[in-house]
C-alpha cells in the first residue's frame, strides 16, 4: 500500500494534465474602445528589473532573493489590478492587463510556496500544478490561471503568439519578458518573444532525424494549425525551418526557472 499510493498519485497527476481547449468566457469579451485609460504596470516592471536575469536561452527569476518588501509590492500590484475593471479598457490595454496579471500571479504562487523544484508541485493533492486553482477575483468573478489564458486571452485575441507571452515559471516555457506588457509595446514584445523562443533549443532543436519541438506546439496545435501551418509559423521567425522535414518529437522541461 505504501508503494501503491505514491504510484497512483503520480499516474493521476500526469494523466490529468492536458492542455485546455480555447473556450470563450463571453462575459470578458467586451471593451471600451473610446477609453484612454492607461494601466500603470511600473510596480511589475520594477520587480522584473530587480529579479529577472538572462542566461543563455533562458530568463531566470531570483526567487530566493525577493525581499519581504518586494513581496508586498507584488501583492499590492495584484490587489490594484483586481480592483480594476478590465471591461472599461480598450482591447490593447486589456491584453497587457491580462498577460501581466497572469505572469505576476505565477511569480507570486512560486514565492508563496518557495522553495519548490517545479510549479507542477503546487496545487491540490490530485492536481498537476496550480492552473485550475482560484487565484484572483475581478468584477466579483473568481478566476483561475486557466481562465485567464484559455477562456480570455486565447479565444478573444486568437493570436498564437500569446503562448510566448504568458509564462509558467518553467525552463521549458517561453521566457518571461524583461519588459512589462503595455498597449504600446505588445506587438514588439510578442514578435521578440516568438523569435527568441523559436531560435532557442527549447523551442526548436534540430537533429539528424528531424526536430524536437517544444510541447506547446503539440498541446496547442489548434492554435498553430497542422504541420504545414506550424512550419510556416516557425519559418516566419527562423527561415531555415521552411524546409523542415523528417520526424518531429516534443519535449518540455518543467524545472523551475530559478536563478540561483
From TrEMBL:
<feature type="signal peptide">
    <location>
        <begin position="1"/>
        <end position="18"/>
    </location>
</feature>
<protein>
    <recommendedName>
        <fullName>DUF547 domain-containing protein</fullName>
    </recommendedName>
</protein>
<dbReference type="InterPro" id="IPR006869">
    <property type="entry name" value="DUF547"/>
</dbReference>
<dbReference type="Pfam" id="PF04784">
    <property type="entry name" value="DUF547"/>
</dbReference>
<keyword id="KW-0732">Signal</keyword>
<feature type="domain" description="DUF547">
    <location>
        <begin position="88"/>
        <end position="198"/>
    </location>
</feature>
